[in-house]
Each structure stands twice: as C-alpha cells, then as structure tokens.
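hi!! sorry for the late reply, been swamped w classes. u asked for the two structures so here they r. pasted raw, havent cleaned anything up. first the sequence of the first protein and right below it the tokens
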Amino acid sequence: MRKGITGKLACLAAGVTLAFSPAVTFAQAQGYPNKPIKLIVAFPAGGDIDPVARALGEHFQAAWGQPNIVDFKPGAGAILGTDFVAKAPPDGYTLLLCSIGAMTINPGLYPKLPYNVEKDLEPISLIATTPMVLVVNRTVPATKFAEFLVYARSNPPGKLTFASAGTGNVTHLTGELFSSVTGVKMTHVPYKGSAPALADLLGGHVNLYFNPLPSARGYLKSSSDKVTPLAVSTLKRSSHLPDVPTLDELGVKGFDVKSWYGLCAPGGTPKDIVQKLNAEVVRALNGPVFSDKLKGLGTDPAPTSVEQFTRMIRDETVQWAKIIREQGIKVE
C-alpha cells in the first residue's frame, strides 16, 4: 500500500514538474539577465573578432544594465574557448563569439573534438559576414583575374604558392576549394597565424593569399604597389571593395565562401533565453550604432533567426567536410 502511494506521489510530482517547466523557463527568461554576461572569444585579443565582441557587449550593457566581460581563451584553432563554453552552465551567462573554424571546419578536420557542435552548443544568431579577398603579390604578372588564370595555367602545377594562417584555417580551405574548382594546382604554405602570412605575401615570398576582408583593407591601401586584389569570394560584391569583382561573375560559377562571426550558447540553454538573446542581437544589428561599428570594421551585419543560423552551420559543416576529405587535409 505504501509503495502504491509513494509511486502515485512520484508520478504526481513528475507531472507537476513537467506541467510547470515551460513556466519556469519563461520566468528565467523574464528575469534574464540579472548578473554580468561573459562573452568568450576563442582567439587572442586584438584580432578581427575582438572589436565585434566588445561592441556587442556594450550593446547588451546598454540594453539590460548588466556589466559584460569579454574573456579571451585562445588556443588549438579555437577549440579551447569553444570547449569552455560547451561545458559552461547553460544559463545564458556564458556565451561564445562563435566563428566558422570552430563551428563548421573543425568537426570535419579533427577526428575527435572535446565538444559536439550540434549537442553542446546552441546557435543564437549570425552577427556579421565578410568575403575572402584573393590577393596576389606583384611577383605575379597579373592585374586582372583572367591574366592570373593564363599565367597560372602556363606554369608547372604547384609552382604558384598560396599562404594560409594555418592548416585547416578558412584561408587554407578557401584556397583548396579554389584550386579544386579551377584546376589551378598550387602549393600550400601554412603559417602560424595571419601576421607572418601577410608579411611573406607583402615581401613576395608567397604568390597569393585568400585574406578575410577586414584585415586586407589596410594593406591594400598602404601597400598597393606590392599587391593586387583580383576577386572576392562571395556571390555579391562587397560594399567595402566595390570595384573588385566576385569569382562568380569572373566565371567561377557558384563560388561562395565567407568568413563569419556569430553568437552561441552552451547546449541546453533554455529556449526562451536563446530567443531573448536572438531578439536583442537582431535589434542591435538593425539599429545604427552596432551595425555602423561592424561596417567600420569591414564586415556586413547579418541578423538571422535561430533556425536560419542553425541551418547555415549544418550546411557549411557538410561543405567543408567534403573539401577536407577530397583534398586529404590533415592536421598534425
């Protein structure tokens, strides 16, 4: 008899928990945030994503009156910082400035990751995108893309060299994808980061580099006597380099690669909190202050729904895994 009563009480308690769980998460969202939010950046301070994180944190603080902390946890191709957020409490107070490498490239590049993107991370919204710029050193006798193709195809396979910020980096995979679809066989020269890659590009030690536009803009102006931008990698021209055509319009049909930044939370974060964060990010991106800061950095504001961002991550993961597999790319 006692067991029966105990069992009924347990079932009743479970039913009450289930019945009130939506109300509990709604209450969490209504009271959120009531303490500082920590924004994790999985790269060193001073990089392209640094000012994006700080500007977003400033918007959150203005909107909600809570302090924000930008915390840099670089290392292992953004794996360390990403894993830190994946294992953080799913309460909306530890968020990740997520990016293309950690979210869509690394799952196909590393046999074992300490986190699972689909299970351990919750996409909130895309924040900004930027094209890659195909930049050639003046050692390549070409100022137009058509001239570059003629020159590249008239040389032995592998004579042309292309730099990257590291094996498996988006600067590397964009070059591999370009090589695959154009038939231009190039030798990959990986560097430990973008700074040494740029130094050797400007010094004429490597022939070309697919550089994210924010870091390319400065030297394209200051060192225009040393390098030439031939194309951008997105389907649409960039308003930041309006005179530089897209690879698609130059005949490399369908070529569409962009680097991006977004906001993610630990897996299991209550949906109401995720939606509240999404709504605030979208509001920021549609307003003048945050969007103007992003445009000033050379990026394009790109608000999305949670569902759109989730779908984009899944699609890109499949795309990059295919390139990694076909090109036999491995990290040491």
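now the second protein. again sequence first, tokens right under
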Amino acid sequence: MTSSAKSGRSRTRHTGAAAVALTAATALLAGCSSSDDTSDNPLAGEKAEAGTVVVGSNNFAESTLLADIYGEALKAKGLKVTYKHNIGSRETTYGLMKNGSVTVLPEYNGSLLAYLDPEAGQQSAEAVNEAVKAKLDKKLTLLESSPAENKDSVSVNAETAKKHGLTAESTLADLKDIAPDLVIGGSPEFQTRQQGLKGLESVYGLEFKSFKALDAGGPLTQSALTKNTVQAADIFTTDPTIVKEKFVVLRDPENLFGHANVTPLVHKEGLPPEGVDALNAVSAKLDTKTLLDLDAQVQLDKKDPLDVAVEWLESAGLS
C-alpha cells in the first residue's frame, strides 16, 4: 500500500537508538512509520514517483542520521524528498537501489566494495571508489566520498581488556590465543561476511568460542558487550559508547575492514544535477570528528536525528 508524500518536516519522530534496538524484522516495518515515507512496507519495491527523491537508510542509527542529512540537504535545493528509514542490511537495500525504489542511500565505500567483490583490495579510498563503480549495477553510481569514516572494528570490553592485557595498541592478531575463550557478537550478517568472522579467521586465524547474533553495532551489541554477555563485538569506530564504556578497539594492521568513507550511493536516473551538487557539498563538509559528535547527540543525548541533521546543515551553510 502506498501513500502520497507529505512536504516539510511533518513526519513521525524517530530516534536512532530506538530504531536499531528493534529486531531486523521489526526494523523493516518501523522505518515506514514516518509520514514522509512512501510506503507502509519499505520492501514493496515500487519505483520512486517521478520527480521525487527517495532517501533510504539501513537499520542502524548512523545510517538514519545520514539519510536525514542527505534528505534535508536535497530539500534545501527545492527537491521533493521522501524517506524509507531502517530498511534493513545492505543485502536488502542494494536490491532496492537497483530497481529504483530507493534513489539515494548513505553508504560506506569499502564496505560496499567488500559486498560486491569480497576479494578486492582496498589500497586507497580513491581506488576503492573506482573499484566500486566498476562493480556496481549500471543504473547506480557513487558520488564524492566524505573524509568521514566509520569502520567496523572488533572491540573488547574493559573487563576482557584488563584480563588479557589488551590496550589501544593491541591488534587483532593478539586475540589468536584467547579467541577460543571469547564469545563475539555482531549483526547476523557479520557471521558470514568476509569483513566479519570469515575474514577474521582467514586473515588473522581467529576462531571464537561462539557467535551471538545481535544488531548492527546498535544498542543490543553495546549492551551485550557492556554486560559481558559477549567479550568481543563488532562496534563501529564512530560509536560514542566506545569512550563511555571504555571499550578497547583492536587495531587492524592487515586492513581487513578496509576503508569506510561515508559516500552517497545513487540511482542515476532519479537524482537531478542540483541533487548531485547538494550531496557532494555535504561530503565536502563531513569529517569523522563531526560525525562522531552528531552520533553522540543522537545515541547518547537522545536527540531526534532529524533535528540534529537540520541543525548541522544550518551550521555548515548547507541549508
């Protein structure tokens, strides 16, 4: 069932923390609670209405925030925008991008490349982007990457770090002898991805005691690591709980997790030139420090991501 888009900011408030706390199945439906959303079911796969830019997000807080930044930047240029928030993981959103039911999606260049070609090298952000463009469906392209980077990481909690002498200088290789005693947590997809358990085993020789399926670096994963339900977890490097809970992020000298610059993925036919210019302007202004601050406002201060997006765009001269 579809509904007509509503203009302005009159959509149901959403908080990133609440959204990612849902299970994947629930999150797929929760994203359509916004009155700007074009469908009661974000998986309906209907093509965007002519003249409307549909901005989607994956099912974690930062993706929702970035989608709001992109969408509000496009609105500031006079474009008609609707949202499909919290659709799911890349395995779902990429299909919706290909069929044109989502026009713009905040992506992470190296993570997208690993999805498209698990064996591809990631020597530089520029090389990654070129490799992604070569592998993308012909209807899709990447715009300019931002300096802001948010990578997957294997992080351990303070208790585990103290017990095994792990510090900010420790690497993933330092887990080899102790991994069999550790439970690791992450999104269900982390269990089967090369940038996940498969790569941790093939690159670093890590075999963990067990894997616990949680969420994509969200409150379930954060809580499990804090409570020691898991001793290691896939935590995003711009997650403000790293500092708050004194998690130790283990270094990745073999660059398993590659590059992860925030980059708009777009359906070529759905975004006019002024939209391209608007999103490239966002990328030019967004760096890692800024992204960490914006994430903290949403995830720790519990601010509405739409409000955070609008305020930042105004401060950056982009609205």
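hope this helps!! also noticed smth abt the second:
The chain is about 40% helix and 15% strand.
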